Structures are given as C-alpha cells and as structure tokens.
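In response to the reviewer comment on reproducibility (Comment 2.3), we provide here a single inverse folding case reported in full, input and output, so that an independent group could reproduce the run without further information from us. The structure tokens appear first.
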C-alpha cells in the first residue's frame, strides 16, 4: 500500500501553480499584455551583476573538475565560514561554520529541520497567514500542525493566543517575517513577548522548544523597518534562509540552515539535522552555485523595484476602495476580499484577467494575495482592470 498521507500530498492541488498555468494559457490566447498575473512569488528583477560575474569568472578560470565535483554534504567549508561571518557581522549572532548547512533553498532547510526535530505526535505551531508548505513538511513526519491566528487587522503575533496554544507536546514554533502572504514584519516587541513565553514553556515542560525562523524575505524590507534577528532573542533558534529572492535565483535552489551556537544540545541539533538531510536524499547542493554564493554573500537584488511596485499598487487599490494590509516587506499584498469568500472573488477577478490568489490555503479565507514581483508596467496596466472590477461589484 502507498502512504495515504504522501499520496494525498501528491494529489493535493497547488492553487498558485494552477493559477499561474491558467495565466500562461490566457497569455497565449489573448496576448501577454492583456493578462495581469499576480499569482506567483517568483522574482522579476534580474540577479545582481555580481552573480553572473562570479559565474563567468568561475567558468573561465577555475578548475573545471573542481567546480562540478561533489562537495561535503553541508557545503564547502569556505562557504559555510563566509555565511557564518556574514551573519555574525550583520546581526551579532552566535553562529559558526559547524552550525551552517547549505540547503536547496529555505524549503530544504525547513523540511530537514522539521524531520530532525520532531517525533510523531509532536506539535508544530504555525501562525496564520502561513506559507502553505509548512503543513506538508510537518505532517509528512507525523508531527501535528497547531494553527494559531494572528491579530485580525494587523496580522501581528497574538501573544495570548500563542501562549494558550503551547502544550507539553510543543516542539517547534515557525515564524516567517517578512511574511508570505501578508508582507507584515513582526515587531521586536511581539517577538520579545513570544520568546519570553517560549522560555517559560521550556522551563515548565522541561524540554527545549525550537524556534524556526523562515526568512526568505529578510532583505526585502522597506522604509528602514527593522527585521529582528531571532537568535538575538532566543537561544534555541534555527534560521532557514534562502537566496531565491535575495539574489533572484529561485531556480538555482540555494539557501542554508543556521543553528544558533547557544542552542541547547547544540551538537545533537546539528547532527539530527544532518541526519535528516541524509534521510531526505540530500547529497550536497550545486558546487558551482556554492562558489557563486561565497562571492556574493552580502549582495542583494534591486529591492527598490519592489518598493516602487508596492507603493503604486497599494495606493491604486486603496483609492478604488479595496482594503489592504500595509506590507512592510516581501513582495506580497494581502487584501481583504470584498466578498466573504475570497475564492468566489478571485474567480470573478479572472473575468478581468486579474490572477490573484484566494487566502484559503494561507489559513485566512477572507483575504487574498497579490504578488507584486511583476513588471511595473503590469501594475500600471492592471489598475484600470481593478477599477472595472470594483465598479462591477459595486465597491464604494
Ligand atoms: N518560505 C516561504 C515563506 C516562502 O514564501 C518560500 C517561497 O516562496 C519558501 C519558504 C521556499 O523558498 P525557497 O525554497 O525557494 O528558498
């Protein structure tokens, strides 16, 4: 017999990819300039020039065998040292190369951490709105997702609700800030309250509770809003980082897991994550790209492009009467559905060639997500379509 859980994962529709495929089909039918695809979170700005310069330099001058050979499973030592040094320099964090494991994006890091840290029946706290794949990574290993709602208007952490959700089975808490899909950055004050509650729970229950900081959007923060570094707040922290958005290279599958040096049972945590990676069939990530990342460890793509998109989109939609959560980071806008069911509203939007994602799979069905990692021109041309939609549904 097949595993029922895993079979269900294979058959579960992926709303975003389905919508994106639909947008592709419509573009072929009526021309790309007439379709406004806000479905997928794939960067539209090119990688910074340093990425291709590093590749060219490696392809031209490096030993061709060495740049394509297997690397150690956790990654090249020189890269792990460079990552650790960058984190320490930028955030004063307590990390060294022994706690860095280079992964296939943040996805690889989250999957291996959850596999390593949980036993069947353990609980994993996930805040709404949430990245949909957390449920898959949690349930695949028999752990149980515990969904905690955030404040209904600000989508900031609701600390009393979080405290009420902690039980002696709580093993991992996942935080994602800047958040996909809300664009919200959790404030230092709420993070302090959350980590205080976790420290108290660790004492009360007599075992560590790990904080998993999923941060593919760390560098995408606007107007100087600070993204707190969670290791500064809580020792039992693991960071899942990605270069997908930072360097606009999502298809190259590069990221890392970083374990805080002050983590309880540090060696065990590092080893259990390495064991999980092995069990998941991870050998090592791309050798060539590890070397590229080592040369670009502090480089960031053109974040101002997204900020300009955000500013025009938020103002345009609010002027039309839509209600948005102000996004301080990432490249997503979370909008309140004018109809109670965002699924029905998103279907309606399709009639205007507007592809936006209903909030159901993010755990907030009354909202929808608009990804603004698109050409600026697409936003300018989409606003009249949003205006016609607003008029059609009688939005004030
Ligand atoms: N976590 C969040 C919140 C995301 O939005 C994404 C991708 O969009 C990922 C993790 C996975 O990113 P990757 O595996 O490309 O690093």
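Designed residues, in position order:
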């Amino acid at each position: 017999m097949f595993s029922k859980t895993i079979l269900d994962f294979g058959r579960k529709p992926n709303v975003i990819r389905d919508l994106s495929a639909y947008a592709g089909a419509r573009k072929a039918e009526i021309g790309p300039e007439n379709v406004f695809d806000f479905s997928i979170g794939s960067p539209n700005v090119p990688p910074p020039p340093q990425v291709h310069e590093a590749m060219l330099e490696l392809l031209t001058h490096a030993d061709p065998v060495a740049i394509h050979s297997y690397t150690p499973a956790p990654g090249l030592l020189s890269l792990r040292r460079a990552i650790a040094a960058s984190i320490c320099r930028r955030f004063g964090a307590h990390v060294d190369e022994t706690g860095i494991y280079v992964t296939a994006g943040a996805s690889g890091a989250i999957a291996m951490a959850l596999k390593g840290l949980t036993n069947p029946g353990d609980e994993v706290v996930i805040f709404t709105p949430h990245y949909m794949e957390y449920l898959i990574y949690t349930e695949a290993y028999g752990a149980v997702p515990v969904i905690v709602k955030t404040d209904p208007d600000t989508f900031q952490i609701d600390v009393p609700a979080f405290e009420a959700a902690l039980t002696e089975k709580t093993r991992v808490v996942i935080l994602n800030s800047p958040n996909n899909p809300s664009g919200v950055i959790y404030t230092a004050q709420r993070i302090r309250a959350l980590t205080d509650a976790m420290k108290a729970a660790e004492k009360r229950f007599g075992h560590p509770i790990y904080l998993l900081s999923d941060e593919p959007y760390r560098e995408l923060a606007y107007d100087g809003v600070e993204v707190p570094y969670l290791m500064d707040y809580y020792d039992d922290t693991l960071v899942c980082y990605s270069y997908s958005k930072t360097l606009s290279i999502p298809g190259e599958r590069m990221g890392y897991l970083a374990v805080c040096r002050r983590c309880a049972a540090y060696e065990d945590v590092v080893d259990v994550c390495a064991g999980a990676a092995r069990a998941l069939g991870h050998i090592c990530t791309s050798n060539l790209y590890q070397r590229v990342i080592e040369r670009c460890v502090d480089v960031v793509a053109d974040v101002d492009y997204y900020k300009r998109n955000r500013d025009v989109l938020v103002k345009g939609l609010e002027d039309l009467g839509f209600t948005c959560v102000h996004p301080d980071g990432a490249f997503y806008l979370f909008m309140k559905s004018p109809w109670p069911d965002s699924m029905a509203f998103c279907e309606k939007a399709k009639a205007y060639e507007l592809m936006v994602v209903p909030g159901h799979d993010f755990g907030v069905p009354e909202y929808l997500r608009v990804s603004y990692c698109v050409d600026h021109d697409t936003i300018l041309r989409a606003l009249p379509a949003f205006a016609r939609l607003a008029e059609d549904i009688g939005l004030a």
